[in-house]
Amino acid sequence: MRRLVVVLAALNLAACAQGGGATESPGTAQVATEKSPPLTVEPTPEARKAAAEADGLSRKGESAQALPLFRVAWEGGVRNKDLAYDAACAASLAKAPDEALVWLGRAVDGGFDNVKHLKNDPDLDSVRGLPGYAPLEARVVAAEAKLLEAADPALRDELLRRMDEDQEARKALMVSNFKDEAAKVKLREVDARNTAWLKGVVAKVGWPGRAVAGVRGAFAAWLLVQHADQDVAFQAEVLPMLEKAVARGEGSAKDLAYLMDRVAVNTGKPQRYGTQLEEVNGRMAPKNLEDPAGVNARRASVGLGTLEEYLAGVERMRAAIQKP
After folding, report:
1. Which of 74, 105, 211, 236 is 20 to 30 A from residue 65's alpha carbon, by CA?
2. Would the pTM count as exceeding 0.85?
């Protein structure tokens, strides 16, 4: 299933095809079984378009129709773990398990590292019995273990627990198409609790970066402060801490960009990267964007895709959530 993790926070899409009644994929194309290294060239416009169309079809459960487009996207230069994992799910649901395993290998080669999701994803049920699956799962387990290494495992675990609570509260609200008042109240309560707790942590130990809390724990800390909108002063206080952490290799430049934009928008200033959106005439658009002509260059400098791709992905996600 396509996960909505962090999408609920910052609209970073983590991949996995949407389940649905796929039919047999006729004439499955030959797919190379060796590793396909990431391309060093820019993806072609045709590849980007194919990736977007494949994503939309996957979200609607049209896996067999999405699969050829995933192939076009990959061959045209859109090569990353998210697309590869999506394609693995699509191939599995389209009754092409051997091809699904190839795609899964590409995802693992690209850094896919979510053990729980890999083991529990029903979209990959047709793949787990194949001889090549177990070594891939073992590699994911090893990759995730590195991300969990932390000087303070108790703090890491509490950060991860609170991140899960954060995401569950947001999922509940999204499922209701943001109309459930009880879910809104629950979300505010969760955010308030997490903000108060994280403020205590920061006051005691400073910003919990990767050495202290592990890569996953540091990400969870960012997620909680990103959602501390009830305390904008705290968000602003953390911002220079995260900047220093990124400079030391203790944080993510992408996460920093999101928090910079969040603080800017929450204090009435223009945002730099276009990560914070609002609905305008039924479509999502960036709020109060500084220098729109230069936004994609700024996004590229921190590892973000183009604003156009970001907005298109958000619209596909909204359509999937809001479908009857």
Report:
1. 105
2. no
